[in-house]
Automatic annotation (TrEMBL):
Name of the protein: Peptidyl-tRNA hydrolase
Similarity comment: family membership: Belongs to the PTH family.
HAMAP family listed in its UniProt record: Pept_tRNA_hydro_bact (MF_00083)
Enzymatic reactions: an N-acyl-L-alpha-aminoacyl-tRNA + H2O = an N-acyl-L-amino acid + a tRNA + H(+)
Length: 198
């Protein structure tokens, strides 16, 4: 019997060791074709430009790729529960919250504008609220892609889940991508100076 237990123990799968990364870049959005081109999915759009094929992360509700010390990831949950992936990802990759970069849509910026900030309120964004809850802090970096406020008579949920215009798409796949690369190579101040001048 003891020998059988030893043999079973030998074949038992052990969890993979954490993968080291200097940064964790998370693109926010909702999974599925239904949401692919919506304003709420600008984070996914940016991530598609930054990273190639993403692979499942064992034990985490996320897809990711590590390249040159940067882990690029998106959750496989819906936006409102993104933190369920981001919290475990920081542990998996050994990244402190202040080196987490979150790319997300921002109602309070004009469509097509990209702005960077560290920490601060979530401004009603449920994806950010979930991340803050699971990280236990607001002290992470944000790449905010402006989508503008909805016109009169249009509800916010309908607006964020509506199709992103060309201006928003261009910002997500252009300035937001540049912002992430500058943040990971030059730091926040230089990244802000470059991106905010555009």
């Amino acid at each position: 019997m003891a020998r059988v237990c030893v043999m079973l123990g030998f074949f038992r799968r052990t969890p993979p060791p954490p993968l080291d990364a200097d940064w964790l870049v998370v693109g926010l959005g909702n999974p599925g074709d239904k949401y692919a081109g919506t304003r709420h999915n600008v984070g996914y759009m940016a991530l598609a430009q930054l990273a190639g094929n993403l692979a499942p992360v064992p034990g985490v509700k996320a897809l990711a790729q590590v390249r040159d010390g940067v882990a690029y990831a998106r959750s496989t949950t819906y936006m409102n529960t993104t933190g369920e992936a981001v919290g475990p990802l920081t542990a998996q990759f050994g990244v402190a919250p202040e080196r987490v970069i979150v790319i997300h849509d921002e109602l309070d910026l004009p469509a097509g504008t990209v702005r960077l900030k560290f920490s601060g309120n979530e401004n009603g964004h449920n994806g950010l609220k979930s991340i803050t809850e699971h990280l236990g802090t607001r002290d992470y970096l944000r790449v905010r892609v402006g989508i503008g406020r909805p016109p009169s008579g249009v509800a916010v949920p309908d607006w964020v889940l509506g199709p992103a215009g060309e201006e928003v798409r261009a910002a997500a796949t252009g300035d937001a991508v540049d912002a992430v690369r500058l943040l990971t190579s030059e730091g926040l101040q230089k990244a802000q100076n470059a991106i905010h001048a555009r």
